[in-house]
Inverse folding.
């Protein structure tokens, strides 16, 4: 399921996130599911949450990292799909 990049990512209120030494762990309290992110994925997540849209986060990350544009787009899409599937982030529709 492709997530449109004009949407905004938000952290649902029932999700706990703990960061330690650059890595993070997310816990969905209701489902009892968790997901760990390495340092790079944690930085991508933080950029997504702080940005007005997924596209704005993508643009910022593309300027920051020496990475092929399509590779970054794919990595962001895969991370978002995994987190949405586990209920760890929500994507606003407006």
């Amino acid at each position: 399921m492709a997530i449109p990049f004009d949407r905004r990512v938000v952290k649902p209120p029932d999700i706990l996130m703990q960061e330690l030494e650059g890595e993070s762990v997310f816990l969905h309290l209701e489902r009892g599911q968790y997901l760990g992110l390495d340092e790079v994925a944690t930085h991508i997540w933080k950029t997504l949450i702080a940005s007005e849209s997924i596209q704005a986060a993508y643009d910022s990350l593309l300027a920051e990292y020496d990475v092929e544009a399509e590779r970054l787009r794919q990595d962001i899409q895969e991370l978002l799909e995994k987190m949405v599937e586990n209920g760890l982030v929500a994507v606003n529709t407006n």
